[in-house]
Structures are given as structure tokens and as C-alpha cells.
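Progress narrative, Year 2. Work on Radical SAM/SPASM domain-containing protein from Halodesulfovibrio aestuarii advanced from sequence curation to structure prediction during this period.
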Amino acid sequence: MDCNKNSFSKPDVIPVLDFELSEIMQARDKGNILSLDLEITEACNCACVYCYRYESEGAQPPAANELSAQEIIELLTEAKEKHDLRRICILGGEPLIPVIREKYIATLECCNRLGIEHVTFTNGVALDKETAQLLYDLNASVCLKLNGMNAQTHDALVARSGAFDKSMSAFNHLIELGFGNKRSLSFETVVTKTNYNQITDMWRWARERNIVPYVETLTVQGRSQAHPNDLVVSNEKLHALFVRLNEIDHAEYGLEWEILPPIAGGHRCLRYYMSMYVRANGIVCPCVGVDLQMGSLRTDSIKEILSSEVACQTRYINEHITGKCKTCDLAKSCYGCRGAAYQQGDLFGEDPVCWREQSNR
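Result:
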């Protein structure tokens, strides 16, 4: 792993995660969406064994009914002008896959015209030097997949030989252009049994290069449903890992954050209050972990989608959650991982992955 080190400076959080609670709740009550998760395509050049999106094996082609560039532009324009959209996550599939490159560029150009910040989540396989320059020129922030400190681990989890080397090359291309200093750069991974013992090394590797770590717990859905026993880490071990990461940040980098799942680093998921997840075909859901449909961009306005029964329940999720999550002393600013609860059969139930909830039983 030969990516050049930067001198460490206190990092910004990933751009889509740093809204204040007061503005989030204000956006909810006004019917606004401060952020949006946009699945720009179903096409993907990897086949991650933990993928939340697909159950079928192998790389995926684009779907026949994906939103066009013009439909995405109309979505972003409506969201910005009528609902105060400020930032989007561009997801896949794989956003940088060449077959949808023109649509991807049109999306970022539209964001820039409208003043919407954007971060691209990518596996890095198609992120060569030319693409890195394109990302820089389009004012992109980037979150790059990194599943381990070696090819054996990373390639096994993304089910593609050579993916680790491509990811490392992608990091190098981005850092050479100033990502990590002039522009936000982060890495994303899901904690599994396969990479558990490498997470602390990955964390330090990132901090030393001003790369923001985005380390999250696994939600059992998609491909991971076929082999959860090979992937799922116990709550006790997840808690121990998050505690260790917190200790590293405190002792070595002077950073302080609260130890809570599902994301290490003190990032609370509050998307239900002020966001929505748009699938490549225009279907809108509360988040990537919950497939309940709020509506469709091809038939409904955003206002109508946010007025749907599902949206009314999820945007006021704190009024519907049950069990220990409801009585937790953090309930006003945390509702747990709803995706994890939903995959256990109850969207409003206790978060089964939260060790804090377990300790309050």
C-alpha cells in the first residue's frame, strides 16, 4: 500500500453527514430534503459478497428502465428549487462504470449548476488517472471502497481479482491531485469476519493520509443473506472494535466522538428525517436498507412522495419506534439502524445491532 502520506490535519466528516440536528428537524417539518441518495445505475463491475442491493451472483449490467440523464436533472432541479436539497450521495451499482459515464457527468454538471454538493461512492475499478482528473474537474468528493489491507482480503470481499490493486491506484491518482487536502476523500468498508482484524490498520492508514474513514456494520440483505454466518460479526466484537477505533483517534489524532453503531467515527444516521433513497428506476424508498416504496419519480412529485404513508411514518420514525430504542436516553437524536431492524422483520423494532441497546436490557 504505497499511497503517499499527507501531514495529518483534523478531517472534515464525509460531506453528506455533517448537518446540525436543528436544521435536520427543521427540514423534516417543512417537507424538505437536505440530502438524497441517488442510485445512478444498477450496473456494477464487482460482485461484493455483502452487497445490500443484489441477490444474484456476478457483475451486473444496467437495467432496462433506469432513469435517464434528463430525468435525473429534473429530479435534482425540483429537489433544489422546492425542497432545499443541498447534497447528494451518488451510488450504484458502480457510478464510474464507463457504460453510463455520460449520464454520470451530466448529473455532476447539474449539481454544480444548482449549487448541490455531491460525493461519489465508487469501488475504484474504473477510476484511472483520466477519471481522477475528471472527478477533480467536476468538483467531486469521493468515497472509495477499501475492504482490507491486502489483495487477498479486498478481492475476496468484492469477488473480483485485481480489484485491490486498482483501488490502490485510484487512491494514488486522487491523492496526487490533492484529494485528502483540497477535496474531501474518504474510504468505505463494511465490517465482516473476513476483514475485522484489519480495520484498525485501515483506520490509521486513512488518518495518516487525511482520508475520512467510513466504517459501518453489516446489514444482512442482498447477497449476504446467502451466507450470513461467514460474514456477521457479533455485537460484542463490533463494540470492542468501535471502542478501539475511538481510542486510536483520541490518543493518536486528538479526535473525539461518541461510540455508536452503525457507523464508526461518531456519524449518526439521521437520513430518515431529511433524505430519501432513489433507485435507478425512479422508485423511492426511505434508505438502502429498507425496500418499502414511498412512491415513484416517474408518477409522483417529491411533495407527493413525502406525503405518502411510508414517508409520514419514516420521517417521524422517532414517534413509532418501540422497545429499548424508544426508551433509550439518546432517542431524541438517534433512532438506531432501521435497516437492521427491518431485516429482522420490524421496521419500528429495537435495533438488533446496537450494543448500547443490548446493554440496557
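The first helix runs from residue 21 to 30. The CA atoms of residues 121 and 331 lie 29 Å apart.
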